[in-house]
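cron nightly-structures :: item 1 of 1
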Amino acid sequence: MENLPKLSYDEIEQKLEVQEALVECIQTLFSKDDDFGVSINNLLSIIADYYCAERAFIFQFEEDDIHMRNAYEWVSEDSEATPDNFKEYTIDSLREWFSLMEEQGELFIDVDTLSLEEGSVAWNFVSAQKIRKLIVVPLTSEGKTYGFIGVKNFLREDVSSLLLQSVATFVLNDFKQRDSFEHKIFQSVTEINLSMYLVNVIDDNFSVLKTCPQINQKFADDGGSARTKFPLLLEGIVAADYLPALHEFCNFDTLEERFADRKILNVDFLSVFSEWFRASFSPVSRNYDGKLKYVVFSIQQIDEEKRRELEYQQAVKSTLENQNEVYSEILQSQSAGVLSFKRVSKEILIMNPAALNMFGWDIIVSANGNITAILDKIESNEKDEIIQKILNLQRSDLEYTFEFALHRAENDLRWILGHAKVVVLSNHEEIVIISFTDITSNKKMETELFYLSQTDGLTKILNRGSGERRIEYLLKKGMCGMFCLFDVDKFKAINDNFGHSVGDEVLVEIAKCMKRSFRGNDIVMRLGGDEFAIFALSVQDEKIGAMCIERFFSSVHGISIKPLRDRKVSVSLGAVFTEGAGESFDQLYQRADELLYTCKKLPGCQYSFYHKIAGKNKK
């Protein structure tokens, strides 16, 4: 024990960190995730996190020992993946660094300490990849290097390749196990196929992996042009009606494009032996520049499977034909509107009576069976967006819900709620089904409730909450204007002497005077009791303000309420002009309230304008 080297606290801490990261890496590699790529990506993210690196990667050398490819890569959120950045570099062009990596078991590059000749391969490599710091270790087994694993542009100061070296062993072992597993899969796939060919798409040649006399004798020998020999194979076994489709399927010039969003390509055909077969293309590998290189072309007999499928389709077709009349009757009796059209051609398939009634009885005729003409009757501020969303629905989209208005006739406005979704029929055709529900009664109730929430119940002008919110909104937008605050003179005496019903009648008449004296876009509101407020938009001059107020006072003076006999109604008012952005309703209210208090001490129908420096009263 005494001869063991003593480790510093920092060294112990570092080894513990490496051990924790390594355990996490191993658990990730041996997780039950079926997607090998996901496991590797998770592994690289753990490594990058440990080194605080911008990028973690695994490179593999190609079988030609000339090129290398970026097999797996993890990059931070603020960096860009570069899967093809190394394709112009060969192993020999960087042989000095690779030899050093194999010899030392690691390669560490710090650009700040390197002395590179400008224009050299190494200098171009470092510059193009924007490398500041790089550390890699080889993936070596039985004296052969298969690639390397590393991190780029890391921030960790106590850098060591210990974690990378430990992980490299497990990664390489996992690669080998995976290769073995894929080989077993290949063997099992071979057993279910009658014929298999390994095709080199780039060089236009092929080799026979498996064949049988039933397919074609012309493929007994290996090699030759795939583009030349495959048509001979097809003509020898494919029934005439299926030849055009098979020729198109075997077009090697379009393989790259067709594999863009597919992992395997299949086509079923009837043979000259009156048996069903399935032809398939499966990708095997790609070139260093990402182009499809090797594919496996296979032919499998599916006669029994296909016959069962055809029998099932026929049974479904027969059942649907017998049920069509029942379904039609159910659809016609629906109170909700139902409309369906073909997703691609936009041709209308069904529009039941309820839907016809909503849009107008002759709409299906005038629309010529085209969905666009029907949707054009939608009335909404979002009409174009709604139509485009419906016309561009995909099978992967969830149900789309929208709301719009329809005028069936003059003074007959209806509100409609729509639900649209894509449905795939048994013949694989995609249709869009839209259901329409008349929500006019709900909409009217909603509008009425909104009106009630905004309006004073007695006077029918804005209540305090809604009026204050609107004024605050206009102030934030920088709108100028005159804010007036007033109340009814001796209103308590009116209530006490004539009763609250007369008092209420006075308040109603005051509100009418406000609406008559000010413009429609001015805000008139009841704050509560006998207190009211006005925000006259764009009035920013005392002369104009006085004209507006005196017009209002004149209207108030003309109020005639029978129980009051000759008693006149009067009000006292304080007026404030907005001074610019940053003001609030509370500030305007406070200034106007001070003036109102002063005016209340004078005889009725007094008003005063607020001045920032000195007050000035005006009758």
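cron nightly-structures :: done
Residues 1-5, 613-619 have pLDDT under 50 and may be disordered.
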